[in-house]
Specification:
This protein is of the alpha/beta class. The chain is built from 29 helices and 22 strands. The chain starts with a helix and ends in a 5-residue tail after the last helix. Bound molecules: iron/sulfur cluster (SF4). Iron/sulfur cluster (SF4) binds next to helix 3.
């Protein structure tokens, strides 16, 4: 029946009349309100509250480590009723956790969780949950047609050029495994040997990338396990598959062990911006990072472009608790962000490159106002090392000492103890100007702190010195500290204010705080690490800290916080065994099948090779540039040379969605990829542009 407005009013009027006629009877059924004199003495029937209590009933519970890509690894408890995971709570037992060496976490690690972890059941049972395997219709057709070579016409026919507009069909697991295996064989064969190389050449791939394949089709397979260290079996399992592709190469090219190549293992660390590129630039280590318990020691914390409160939720309390201990909190960001709301002061800066100038300006004030920790700078930084002013290269002892031979390094030093297979010839000694003898003297990389003092060397920080070279020529050299004095002349407070827009009084306040409070730590976000200027950004953060003795002591330092460092599971060492290498790179030709045996170093044989994922996002090209003056220049080294990407398989990571150049990747680059496999619990943006989910 069509109900128009007139009809509706007629029906409503009828219902109202009927209710009025029966209201007496309805009213008779309603119970009168129970009157309670003093609610503290007596209370009416409270059984209705059970409705709410029942919501929290459960039949069993279990604990697990929440392990998405966010790296926090919170230990949580799930509650199950009627076979359904109803809710998740903090387990509040981090203080009971200890490592193999007996180090026990304390109660300060509780509580530990976030809303994403708590609402996980909604994702598990939600509408985006992948409940069965699916294959894209066009890709399936390509497979069913016998995997014909994907020339331009076929790429369009099978919708390799229009993924995202196609449909998916539901498959059984067995069917899916078969398609996956057949796809690997087909793609591997298509690009193996001379025929494969010719095809890739015709398709326009750079010759250096084709050469890097060594004739192996499976070398075009790219695998990516999301944040693998947080779930080695589930996520790094994909790298085991990459290694096992050596078997496929063996079958395709008829070669034996040692003469075949596996797939490429795409990196995680750089793709998501977890790696601070300026760290390796500044001190040679991949990353400087701490466990957040180290915040307990900090007296001043500077959050630089980092929203720890919202983005690192279970860790944010370490930051705010510095407040309780009387520490100073500073936030540097363009916007008044959540860390700024907790801070003693917020230094607003212009978005972009400008904040580098802030730290150089701060360093200048620290030097100008005599806030430098001179002993620390002499003992533990490279600022006393002499630099030639003619070449701007460090002065080396063989420049001015005839027949100088590199000194023997002490056995208890970092170099001899921890660096394996180091090449002493690549580690020349340095020179400082010794104020005790008023001469340049040689120092080794181990002559730091007490060791240098034991040699009775007191290096100069200021001044320009004449150095007579072995050749007889005289040049001048100056300590790096002196060079910084010259360099920082450009960063006077007016200029810094002009560049970064930070208020002048706050620039001075920041400098004086860093110069007078100890320990001071600076933390910056992975977000910043995405950008090219991060090299300079990270490096600038070290300058004021080095000047004030704030690198090394607990509660100090310049760090990102990716968080993987506490996932110390499965790490390998020479004495404990190969760790996750046993999982990833067990010799595919001789796997250990006896369950009572462990995989040892001798059973590890790596056929896979790492690859920086950004080459794929860079139109699947190495960094090769046709320069106007010097012609074609290959900037990507042979060790890092990518191979053409023809098969992609990623696990537990929304890798396409995270691309910085998403449009180009999805609408151009991936058109040349033959097979994309997305393995995830939800239908992510990456699944949408894949072939097999
Ligand atoms: S922070 Fe949240 S999502 Fe991350 S591990 Fe902890 S509970 Fe899980």
């Amino acid at each position: 029946m069509r109900l128009n407005r007139r009809k509706f009013l007629q029906v409503s009027a009828g219902v109202a009349t009927a209710m009025a006629l029966t209201s007496k009877r309805v009213g008779a059924q309603l119970k009168p309100v129970v009157k309670v004199g003093n609610p503290l003495e007596a209370y009416p029937d409270r059984r209705w509250e059970e409705v709410y209590r029942d919501q929290y009933k459960y039949e069993r519970s279990f604990t697990y480590c929440c392990s998405p890509n966010d790296t926090h690894q919170c230990r949580v408890r799930g509650f199950v009723r009627n076979g359904i995971l109803m809710r998740i709570e903090q387990n509040y037992d981090h203080h009971k956790v200890r490592d193999l060496y007996g180090n026990q976490a304390d109660a300060a690690w509780n509580p530990r969780m976030c809303l994403r972890g708590m609402t996980y059941p909604r994702r598990a049972y939600g509408p985006y949950r992948n409940k069965y395997p699916m294959i894209r219709v066009g890709w399936k057709q390509w497979a069913d047609d016998g995997f014909p070579y994907l020339d331009k016409e076929n790429r369009e026919k099978y919708k390799m050029t229009s993924r995202g507009t196609d449909e998916f069909v539901r498959m059984t697991w067995d069917q899916t495994f078969t398609y996956l295996a057949k796809g690997h064989v087909a793609v591997g064969k298509a690009y193996s040997g001379a025929r494969g190389a010719q095809r890739l050449k015709n398709e326009g791939y750079q010759p250096e990338m084709i050469e890097a394949m060594g004739g192996s089709g499976p070398r075009t397979f790219k695998y990516r396990g999301g944040m693998g260290l947080l779930g080695v079996v589930g996520k790094y399992g994909i790298y085991r598959l990459a290694n096992n592709m050596a078997l496929l190469d063996s079958i395709i090219r008829g070669r034996g062990p040692g003469k075949v190549l596996g797939g490429r293992a795409w990196s995680n660390y750089t793709w998501h911006g977890d790696q601070a590129p300026g760290h390796s630039w500044t001190h040679g280590m991949q990353t400087s990072d701490i466990d957040f318990a180290d915040h307990r020691y900090a007296k001043m914390t500077i959050q630089w472009g980092k929203n720890l409160i919202e983005n690192k939720m279970p860790e944010a309390h370490w930051y705010t608790e510095i407040m309780e201990r009387g520490g100073t909190l500073v936030s540097i960001a363009p916007e008044y962000n959540p860390p700024a709301t907790k801070a003693d002061y917020w230094v607003p800066v212009r978005a972009g490159l400008s904040d580098i100038s802030l730290f150089l300006g701060v360093a200048k004030i620290i030097m100008d106002e005599g806030l430098v920790d001179i002993d620390y700078v002499k003992d533990y930084t490279d600022m006393p090392l002499l630099v030639r002013t003619d070449t701007l290269i460090r002065l080396h002892p063989d420049d001015f000492i005839p027949g100088y031979k590199a000194q023997t390094l002490p056995k208890d030093g970092f170099t001899t103890k921890w660096m394996k297979n180091f090449n002493r010839d690549m580690m020349p000694d340095f020179a400082v100007w010794d104020t005790n003898t008023d001469k340049p003297v040689a120092v080794t990389r181990e002559d730091i702190g007490a060791k240098m003092r034991k040699k009775n060397i007191d290096p100069a920080l200021d001044g320009v010195f004449d150095i007579k070279l072995v050749s007889g020529r005289t040049i001048t050299a100056m300590p790096l500290y002196e060079m910084y004095k010259v360099h920082l002349k450009d960063y006077d407070i007016d200029t810094v204010n002009q560049i970064c827009h930070a208020p002048k009084d706050l620039i001075v306040r920041l400098a004086r705080d860093i110069g007078t409070i100890k320990p001071v730590e600076i933390h910056y976000g992975e977000g910043i690490c995405h950008y090219f200027h991060a090299t300079m950004h990270n490096r600038a953060s070290y300058v004021p800290l080095m000047l004030t003795g704030n690198v090394g002591p607990k509660g100090s330092g310049s760090h990102t916080w990716a968080g993987n460092y506490k996932a110390g599971n499965y790490q390998g060492s020479h004495w404990s065994g190969p760790g996750f290498a046993a999982m990833v790179a067990e010799d595919p030709f001789n796997p250990i099948l006896d369950v009572s045996q462990n995989v040892d170093w001798k059973n590890v044989k790596g056929y896979l090779k790492g690859e920086e994922v950004s080459y794929w996002a860079h139109r699947d090209k190495a960094l090769i540039v046709n320069t106007p003056r010097y012609g074609r220049k290959v900037f990507t080294g042979r060790t890092h040379m990518p191979t053409p990407t023809k098969l992609v398989w990623f696990v537990n990571v929304n890798v396409i969605n995270n691309a910085k150049w998403f449009y180009e990747l999805v609408f151009n680059t991936n058109n040349n990829v033959d097979m994309i496999v997305a393995q995830d619990i939800e239908f992510t943006g990456s699944c949408e542009y894949s072939d097999i989910v």
